[in-house]
Amino acid sequence: MVVDPLKDFPGYALRRASSAAMAVLARRLSILGLRPTEASVLMVIQANPNITQSEIGRLLDIAGANMAPLVGRLADRELIEREPVDGRSHGLKLSDAGRALTLRVKKAMTAHEDELVSKIPAPHRAAFLAALHALWSAEPP
Amino acid sequence: MVVDPLKDFPGYALRRASSAAMAVLARRLSILGLRPTEASVLMVIQANPNITQSEIGRLLDIAGANMAPLVGRLADRELIEREPVDGRSHGLKLSDAGRALTLRVKKAMTAHEDELVSKIPAPHRAAFLAALHALWSAEPP
DNA sequence: TATTGTTATACTCTATAACTATA
DNA sequence: TATAGTTATAGAGTATAACAATA
Q: Which CATH architecture has domain B10-135?
């Protein structure tokens, strides 16, 4: 009946797969009161204590203008602490509450990733991840 | 120096790969005065003359509320024509201008897809597309 | 001069609720 | 009652421009 002319375009399949996965992850994280970007920022701070917000932005490809309200929300909820390292930049660290929440974020994310990976035949998993990295990092600016 | 704790998460790589690819496609299509969703709707109409807008929404997973302004823009630009098939639904067809533009959309999309595919080793391409389809269609509602 | 952080603003995509007209 | 189409509205992510303070 209805023909889908986009079905065999890898770019379209990539977009649909990504948005389907993001929707599931967002639902999981909303239980913790977090959005996906907030959760990823918490994980980056945990892995890099005293990182500055501009460094996080470069790592996650989030513009500085958008980092400000994001970090502000996390600080308002006392999940992170800011300590001046410079006259203009602050090092970010997790608070105790932030550390506890990040532990739950990690569990949610790992469970989510396991779900995704389980849908891909085991022998193809490594090549799949390699292909995603090739598409991710090699795009022109 | 800075550690990326998300790098090995397929879900995160999926998101980054998708948004990088979408950014490139959006830039290509903006030359034609189209957004990615508008371009995909044109292609669906071309492949399915007289399709209704609710059928397009189900195919592309776009909510009815969001189809209305999208189709309205295409009709305002006289790229498509609406003919009542029903008291409440309209069949959509490309106008001559719409057909000409869709031809250019197809070329832009094909060029874009070829670029993507070229970044993936040839022996892994089929498995990559299959994996994307598995992630796309098998997500729970 | 360049960088960090910030505010303000706008656009796109998405999501929900409410309504009408038709089936 | 269910569906098609529409309007209004809000949230989230992203983008640019502008600015102050600092390096």
A: Orthogonal Bundle (1.10)
Q: What is the pTM of this model?
A: 0.93
Q: Is B87 helix (H, G, I), strand (E, B) or coil?
A: coil
How far apart are alpha carbons A131 and B8 in whole angstroms? 12
The structural domains of chain B, with segments of one domain joined by +, span 10-135
- Average pLDDT of the segment spanning B33-62: 95
Is the CB of A138 less than 7 A from some atom of nucleic acid strand D?
no
- Contacting residues for A32 by C-beta, under 8 A, at least 6 apart: A39, A101, A104, A105, A108
- DSSP string covering chain A: ----TTTT-HHHHHHHHHHHHHHHHHHHHHTTT--HHHHHHHHHHHHSTTB-HHHHHHHHT--HHHHHHHHHHHHHTTSEEEEESSSS-EEEEE-HHHHHHHHHHHHHHHHHHHHHHHTS-GGGHHHHHHHHHHHHHT---
Chain A with chain B: Cβ pairs closer than 8 A: 165
**B78-87 long-range contacts, Cβ below 8 Å, gap at least 24?**
B79/B42, B80/B42, B80/B45, B83/B50, B85/B50, B85/B52
Whether residue B41 is predicted with pLDDT greater than 60 in this model: the reply is: yes
Kindly determine whether residue A51 and residue B14, on different chains, have CB atoms separated by under 8 Å: no
CA of A4 to C1' of C9 (A): 38
Residue A8, pLDDT above cutoff 80: yes
Q: Are B109 and B39 in contact (CB under 8 A)?
A: yes
